[in-house]
Structure formats: structure tokens, C-alpha cells
Amino acid sequence: MLADRISKLRFLVDTGADVSVLPKYYAPKADSSNELLLLAAYGTKISTFGRKRPTLDLNLRRTFTWPFIIANVNQPIIGVDFLKHFNLLVDVKSGCLIDGITKLTTQGKYTNTDLLTSGISILLGDSEFYGILSQFTELTNPSQPTRNNKLTKVHHFIETTGQPVFSRPRCLSPELLKIARQEFEFLMSQGIVRPSSSPWVSPLHMVKKSNGEWRPCGDYRRLNAITIPDRYPVPHIQDCTQNFFNKTIFFHPRFDESLSPDSC
Question: Could you tell me the Gene Ontology terms of the biological process aspect for this record (predicted)?
């Protein structure tokens, strides 16, 4: 067990758990999610209720922001996905967690685990597709976004008129500034965004979500005002649904593209 210095919660470090989870009381009003069903030891099914991205301080001189799955469990659990991403090593003999980057350690405590909520996994070993899906864990683990290290040949170009537009940063309260900084630090750690020195600058706008959390958004009204519209016709939804008639297997394609260096 490790204690988080921010939330004061005690996390069970479970090297047999594929994913990291938080108890249901983190989302008491949330309905059971149909997108993901976890499996505990002996195949016991565990319902999920969405995700939450807390920031943990495990006394390792750095913080850890990670998307935890909210599930029907009794205690918070740090799984292999968390340990692997942050390069953390479990020293079973000493009962501590070792930071593979800084070489610092934090002491934990042994505890009796609940067999019904330990060893959480996404796939069962006797399932029909276990063999092939276990080779591509990034496809089945929602907390590990698929990364593409190959350079894409597809670039998104926004055609504009006139000189680059920019806006001054808007003042944020200390609370919102902290939330925005944590969000962008997480996106950078995942390789989703990167620092930019572009002359195009749009202000940050924080929008409150229905669950009380905040979503950073960009105010692109000045950019849209000088953007040349793309007149490509959008397909009608009726045409799309007709193509789905009598189909039973659907594939969701992923398009990897980057913004053209010559674009805004």
C-alpha cells in the first residue's frame, strides 16, 4: 500500500492488475459504462463507470497524472499500466517502490488483498481472441493511447488570408491555471501535443463539464474569421446509415495526420 500525499488515499500496488482503478465513490451518480467490462480473479466481472485523471504524489519528488478507471472495487489500485508508463519498479523484498528515473524509493506497507478485486484484467486467458489481442495490449487498454512513432505523410493544411493572428493570454484563477497546466503536462507526456513557437496564437478557454471537471479549449474565432472555407460536401447521415444495413462487423479507422508546417 502507498499513500498519496495529495488526496490522502492509500493505493494498493498490484502488479497483477492490467489497469489502474478507483472505487465507485469517485463517481456516485455515474451509470455503469457499456464501453468496458473488467475481469477480476476467477473471471468475476467488474462494472466500470468512466474514467478520472487524478494527480498523485507518492513521495518521489515528482507528481504522476494518470487516467484511472472508475470501477466497482473496494480500494484504489495502481496497476501495471501506471508502473510501466512512469518507469516505476516494485521491490517486493523491501516493500518499496523504486523510481527508475530518479532512483528514489518510497516505502509501502504489505496488506491482505481482496481476491475479488485483485489481479484485474481486461482479457481472460481462455477467451477466443486472447492470443492475438494479448499481443496488442494498446488496443484493449483504454489508459494506454496508441502511439505512432512513424512520421506521417498526411498533413492537414488550413488555408488563410492575411498575416498570422494572435491573442494575448487570458488571466486564469490559480485553481484553473493549475488544472490547465496538469492537463497539458499530461498531453505532452502522452506525445499528443508538443511545445510550439508559431506566430499563430489563440487564447485558452476553460469550459466546465457536466461532471464538474474542466476542459481546456481554444478560442479560434479570430482564426476562423480569416480561414478560407472548405466547400467539400459533407455526406448525408441517411446515406451512411443505408450503407450499414445488414452489416454486423464495423471497423473504426484511425487517421494519423499532422498540421502542415506551412499552415497556421
Answer: DNA biosynthetic process; proteolysis
123's CB contacts (< 8 A; 6+ apart) are 39, 129, 130, 133, 134, 140
Domains of the chain, each with CATH number or no CATH = 2-111 (2.40.70.10), 151-232 (3.10.10.10)
Q: pLDDT tens, 96-145?
A: 999 998 899 999 887 765 544 556 766 555 566 666 766 766 666 666 55
